[in-house]
């Protein structure tokens, strides 16, 4: 079997980093992207290479769709140079930042930023990468538990995730003819740098979330990285157009 190759956006830290490492452990070659943390991204590449798997890190700001054509060219060049391939297999649309501002106080600039990062970015990035995706490939989008339950301050962020859940079904419908399946994982609150690391670093917040989670703790990056690797495994090839919440049972 030829080696699989995954593109992981936002692979320099947090969930994307963890997923890249878990996919690499299964022998998947990795093209990961970073926005500002080049050194962190290079460290992830080194960690993957220590596992005997090839990886490269490319800069990408998902909020800037005018750069996607050049990014796709770079991906094409790396596929050829590093893997002697002209296609990749998996796309994980993971990159992004959060926001904490009430609906009544959200500015147009904040709304637009969330829209560009979490909706327009993955929409057009996926569209532009499609010609390089192998028939039978897999797309995994990333939503949030916040698209199912509502917490104050998350409206502009969560609504874009909700829109990604709808887009996932449309992509699955239209890309099925190429054998491409499309699903979306919705993590609960996970201890990463996200939102200034509040879930990890604010003890009160951490305990409050744990108390509302059936399994009694907040999530860890390993919980999501393992889930992503499993969701992209051949065993789950028949799963399509699904939202899979991986939250330990938050706010049931
Ligand atoms: N952590 C949670 O509780 C949680 C829960 C549900 C869903 N999620 C979702 O999971 C995904 C990853 O979150 P995380 O917890 O891993 O966050 P994180 O630890 O803050 O890492 C964010 C990653 O995204 C990249 N990134 C940020 N803004 C970007 C932009 N404009 N363009 C391209 N890349 C960008 C960062 O790159 P640099 O390192 O270069 O800055 C980094 O690799 C996000 O989509 C988030 O909405 C997170």
From TrEMBL:
It comes from Franconibacter pulveris. It comes from the Bacteria. Signal peptide: none annotated. InterPro entries: NAD(P)-bd_dom_sf, SDR, SDR_fam. This is Short-chain dehydrogenase. Keywords: NADP, Oxidoreductase. Belongs to the short-chain dehydrogenases/reductases (SDR) family. GO terms for molecular function: oxidoreductase activity.
């Amino acid at each position: 079997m030829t080696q699989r190759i995954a593109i992981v956006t936002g692979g320099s830290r947090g969930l994307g980093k963890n997923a890249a490492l878990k996919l690499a452990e299964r022998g998947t070659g990795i093209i990961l992207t970073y926005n500002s943390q080049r050194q962190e991204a290079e460290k992830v590449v080194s960690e993957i290479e220590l596992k005997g798997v090839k990886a490269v890190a490319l800069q990408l700001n998902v909020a800037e769709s005018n750069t996607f054509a050049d990014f796709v060219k770079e991906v094409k060049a790396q596929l050829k140079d590093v893997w002697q391939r002209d296609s990749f297999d998996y796309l994980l649309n993971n990159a992004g930042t959060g926001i904490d501002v009430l609906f009544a106080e959200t500015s147009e600039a904040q709304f637009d930023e969330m829209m560009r990062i979490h909706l327009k970015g993955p929409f057009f990035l996926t569209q532009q990468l499609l010609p390089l995706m192998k028939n039978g490939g897999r797309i995994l989008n990333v939503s949030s538990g916040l698209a199912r339950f509502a917490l104050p301050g998350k409206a502009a962020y969560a609504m874009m995730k909700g829109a990604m859940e709808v887009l996932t079904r449309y992509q699955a419908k239209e890309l099925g003819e190429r054998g491409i399946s499309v699903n979306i994982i919705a993590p609960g609150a996970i201890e990463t740098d996200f939102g200034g690391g509040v879930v990890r670093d604010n003890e009160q917040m951490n305990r409050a979330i744990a108390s509302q989670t059936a399994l009694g703790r907040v999530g860890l990056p390993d919980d999501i990285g393992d889930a992503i690797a499993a969701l992209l495994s051949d065993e789950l090839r028949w799963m399509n157009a699904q939202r899979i919440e991986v939250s330990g049972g938050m706010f049931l």
